[in-house]
Amino acid sequence: xxxxxxxxxxxxxxxxxxxxxxxxxxxxxxxxxxxxxxxxxxxxxxxxxxxxxxxxxxxxxxxxxxxxxxxxxxxxxxxxxxxxxxxxxxxxxxxxxxxxxxxxxxxxxxxxxxxxxxxxxxxxxxxxxxxxxxxxxxxxxxxxxxxxxxxxxxxxxxxxxxxxxxxxxxxxxxxxxxxxxxxxxxxxxxxxxxxxxxxxxxxxxxxxxxxxxxxxxxxxxxxxxxxxxxxxxxxxxxxxxxxxxxxxxxxxxxxxxxxxxxxxxxxxxxxxxxxxxxxxxxxxxxxxxxxxxxxxxxxxxxxxxxxxxxxxxxxxxxxxxxxxxxxxxxxxxxxxxxxxxxxxxxxxxxxxxxxxxxxxxxxxxxxxxxxxxxxxxxxxxxxxxxxxxxxxxxxxxxxxxxxxxxxxx
Length: 409
Ligand code: HEM
Hints:
The chain has a five-stranded mixed β-sheet. Strands 4-12-9 form a three-stranded antiparallel β-sheet. It is of the alpha+beta class. The N and C termini lie far apart (59 Å). The relative contact order is 0.17. The protein has two domains: 105 residues, no CATH class; 265 residues, CATH 1.10.630.10. It is built from 14 helices and twelve strands. Protoporphyrin IX containing FE (HEM) binds next to helix 10 and helix 14. Protoporphyrin IX containing FE binds next to helix 10 and helix 14.
């Protein structure tokens, strides 16, 4: 392949602010069309390039800061007032933060998670009545917060779990909508500030009341190296934020897909099938639908040399739906996971990959698998107007309009 220093091709030559406008209207469609039309290296703007080939995705994700970083120095703290936690740190600071969390996410902790998840499902289902129509995303969000927070803190949170769930949901909703700068006293900003205060306050109580548990829980890990209180609180907020919406979305999409595919739903109690179905739902509806890195030196991809300072976009939505790696890519077929993985190792990256891959990946997968299997054993969720369901690509890929009627088994 000849290496070129010219910019890669792209919609409108990759040189137009009109691309940003098209992206804003329909990000999923825009990225998909860009990759299908222009190939695996696509200029979206002069400094934004989409990489769609798993070879390039793998090289970007396993890079250890030599060629790409997670965020450029200028963008370290966003205007949202979001806590600056591990998710956004680099280098030694990141290593330290990640190291102290590792024990809490080891596989032996997953048995504990299973118990928490079963209890969470029992409580959720007990709260439903026969024939009731539920908003599946709303119910899964409460459940994911209940289970996730209890797992991270090592105990049931009761009413406080509900408070956290409401505050985080509000923050997610308010920060993913376009809005005026935070310092302006608009209604949305006031509500955002109130929710952030509630979140901080509730987490502060949790941290102060926490009794060490032999290093077993994530909260134990955070408290293990004498980090300042504010840092512990912010890390906790990040863990909850990153773990909760994504898991709730994954669960909701899975129930939506099972509603559309009764033949798959029938197989959910077969050995290994629930896990396969969870993976397949995250392929078609990846909660993290795009991630990015910034080049710190010229980076070669698909025969093009991209200069330092280029933002590389990797889209799970685009690559997971590519026929080259997944035959019948648009179809929900959990069986494909029973007979092995995808045709290319980095064609499937719902949790990212490499050192900066999701610290909660095995926790999330187990949680989705157990909750789906347990819930389905107790109730049948009869889809209501599934044709109206659509994805909303916000911070995570939110399922809009998933409703169901509860039928006890
Ligand atoms: C279905 C559920 C989940 C999905 C799809 C998901 C996805 C991801 C992805 C794609 C990344 C990498 C982002 C990048 O490379 O730029 C990531 C990172 C991360 N995730 Fe998750 N995640 C999920 C659940 C969780 C859970 C349950 C937790 C913790 C309780 C969690 C905590 C984190 C943290 C702390 C990072 C940053 C890791 C680092 O920078 O070293 N996630 N997640």
